[in-house]
Structures are given as structure tokens and as C-alpha cells.
Amino acid sequence: MRKTWLMLAMLAPAALFSFASARAEDDARARKMMEDAFNRRYRWSEGFKGFTADFVFTREGKSVKGTLKADTTRPRGGITVECEDADVKKLVSETVGSTVGHSRASQFDRAFGSCSFSIAGEGTHGGTKIAIEGHGFFKDFTVKDGNIIENHGGGEGMSTEVSVHEVVWMAESGKTLPHAYAFKIKHGDREQTGKNVENWREIDGVWLPTRWHLTRKEESAAAVHSTLVLEDVKLN
User: Is the distance from CB of 113 to CB of 126 less than 8 angstroms?
Assistant: First the structure.
């Protein structure tokens, strides 16, 4: 498989946010660029219900084992995690829930149909920046070579930035899967940065995430590295 710059994995499923009325002056070229990039990202079919797995979470030489279930018919991926460490339970739930939320079946019109788009000049890495209005969270996207490589969003004192560094191109379908992406979250005076490197594997004809390398950094503290590996993955 060929690796290239990506279509961004969004911080939260677009369909979860409320929409305002779209402006009359929607830019057809900007909308088409966004729709094509949105549709290029691999997503599960409407009939996919989720999966179960055992997991091993490792950080600073300590490993924690547990089990998880993802139910894609429920909000935010319906993640249920069982393990003895409360902090690990929370991080595993958030990590897998974010990936599942971005990978569920979705349609562009359902996610962004009532929004308006406009070209906002050159974006990062020579991409095209597209401003969006009428969405409850996202402010802009940058598209390059047919992929979303960056977005900004926020509200109520919080702002986010996500940059996709690398995707895997699936030659059989022409779709992409996220491989490496970084984020920055500001909430008031606090800031957290991080990076996820995801690996996917085909199981019973469905591509599923099976390994994450996570980097997290809070303010001036040192970066913390950890890994999350799924084992004995089964479709629901």
C-alpha cells in the first residue's frame, strides 16, 4: 500500500453537532472539493454493527489488560471498556471511541448538507484552505491532493487543531485510512498536544483498527508515550 498525505480523522463525528442555516452564497468549487475529500476516507457499511476485542495497554513499562466492545449503532461508537485501571479505562474508551466515530457509515449531505463553503486562500503545506459556515464545531478545512490534511474547530472557550501527517491508500477501493495525525486542544489557559499512529487490519472482510501508538503532552510536562494493542478481534 502507498502512503501519502491524508484525509483527516476528525476529532468528533460531524453528525453529532448542530447546524445553523447555510448562507446563500455557497461556493460550488469549495463544496465539491470538501465532498470529494470526505468521501475518500474509508468508512464501514451501514450494516456494520461493531466489534469486540481483548486489549493490552502499555505505558512506562507497565501493561494493563482488559476487554472492550464497540457498538456502532450507539452514539460516539458505544464503547464499553472493562479493566481494573480507571485512567486506562478512560483513555482506551476515548481513543477507540474517536476512531470508531470517524469510521462509521456517514454521508456528506447528512454531515455538512446545511453548511456553506468558500475558498479561503492557501492552507498548510500548499493545500487549499476552505472556510465553513453553519456548522456547530468546525471552522475550516485544508485540502491537498484530494485529501483533508488539517482542520480547526471549537466553541465555548475551546479550540482544536488536527493535522494529518500520513494515510494509507487502499488500492482496491481508492479509499484512505488514517495512519498518523497530530492534534492540539486549548481550553482556557490549558493546552494539550498529542499524536496518534494507527494501524489497521482486515478481519473477515472489514478493515479495523488494531494498534495505536499514543503521544500525549500537557503544558510543560514531558511527553508520555503509550501503546494500545487489540487482540482476538471479532465482529459483532
Answer: no
